[in-house]
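Service request form, structural biology core

Requester: graduate student, group of Dr. S.
Request type: structure prediction, single chain
Budget code: on file
Notes: please return the result as structure tokens.

Sequence provided:
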Amino acid sequence: MNILITGVSRGLGKNLAIMLLSQGYNVWGISTKDSSASELVDLLQYTNFKYSKCNLKYESEILEFIEQNKDEFSRLNTIIFNAGSMENDLEDGKFNFSKFKEVFDVNLISIVMLIEKSLPIFRQNNKGMFIAISSLCSYRGVVVDKVSYPASKAALNMIFESFRLQLSNDNIQFINVNFGPLGDKNSLMTISYSKAAGRIISLLNEKRNYLDYPLLPALIMKMLRFCPDKFVSYIIKFKKAKK
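Core staff response, request fulfilled:
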């Protein structure tokens, strides 16, 4: 299986790539780092790893990346959209549109552009998998000082759902993965990068449309959908006061 992972230089993307490479998968990773960056040393030691530099914030770079790697795209089976931007675009009541746009460019527009390139190949092969690393905050926008992040993740989930419903007979999977807070260690409310990577890998051999994880934060976020805005706003203000 040939897998493309975006945002491969750190965090979940790096843990996922190393886990897949160690299991024999062919991994093609992209990030904003130069190939000589120290963050990539652990990955470049694998012979089944290919790396490309691309900043998903810029449409021109994405188009150039696609044009320069036509042959590599033709061999893909799976794309895992892990790269993400999380900017504070609403601070002290002041909204920053440029930051809002940057988040949507990375978290949404870049993904749709890569799907446009890959979808015809997957349909021709009658097989393929797109996995979107989304967030539990797509259910309720409770992240402090951020409008674009939960909005982009909610839009991403709906785009994948729409693709899934309209291409249901094409043997192509569109999978939404909604994680809670990620970190180096597991806790009741957070999930470690390695644990999250393992859960993603399990999806490669499963027929499911989405994953919400961990269970407790997922239940809380879904319950907050039914709570009054005034109550949820109080939670946000409380979280902000603790920062």
